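Hi there, hope your week has been kind to you so far. Do you reckon you could talk me through the fold, stretch by stretch? I've dropped the whole record in just underneath, so have a look:
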Amino acid sequence: MTAALQPRPGLAPQLALFNVLTKPLAWLPLGWGLALGAAGGRLAFRLLSRRRRVALANLEMARDTGFLPPDLPIRATARAVFANHGRGVWEILRAYHRGLAPFLSDCRIAEGGDHLERALAESRRSGQGLVLLTGHLGNWEIMCHFIAAFFGFKLNIVGRQTGQPLTDALISRLRTMNGNRFLGKDGAARDMLAVLKSGGMLGTLIDQATLTDAPKASALVPFMGREATFNLGPLRLARRAGAAIILVLARREGRAHFAHLFPPLPPEPERPEAEDLLAKAGRINAWLGEFIRRYPDQWLWGHRRWKTRDKP
């Protein structure tokens, strides 16, 4: 069982109300809980018109460019995406109130576990950490805890806060379970670099659009047949720390969750930095895109992944 969250001043009433409303849901039998989450996701598909339109437009674009099969049922796939995310929300509520054990018992390594084992052995030998990257697939929020527990390390999870006190408190609680640590993405580059140079493990999402005024912070990289912004920050940190990069992607199948681990991208200090970063970004996007092609109902299609400054 996880330790109690220490609320910010003035937040206790909101947390108390949240607990009263959600705790009974966390104790539903697994089948009922997943069914309720799926129903909630399908309802969100009907009610959240903006997210629905974005998801449908992204799926149609990927199909029209030939990335997805021409006979893919767009609307049915989008509904399945929302249903899967609804299931994930219920699983997060269950973890919040009951800890991670019920979820972790349903997790498996599907492929590539030996990649991370070798990378961890090299990390221990060199004293340099690892950067674990993932995407919005399966239940990414909880699957990262399974990876850390299965391979026996503590993970420093990097993410951006929302600015909503209650949401941020809940996210912090979720990401610090099992002794893991949550680092805010904004202004934490020095902390992240220190983690890697001390042999620690850093984990973050890598599949969202990145619009920033910071020079060289992102680059346009092919993704599903079109160029999309790619956040180069984690790759640059890995290069400066001499750390390898591992892509870990998750998917659900019924009640079970499967982790797919990809070959490590080792540091290449002899290679020009811009060339090195773009090559790694291209490799990551290719792996990520192919995984989404195999499991299109698992990804967060409701995000405006291909937005740019010129095309709002």
Observations:
- Confidence is low (pLDDT under 50) at residues 1-7.
- Residues 12-298 form a domain with the Glycerol-3-phosphate (1)-acyltransferase fold (CATH 3.40.1130).
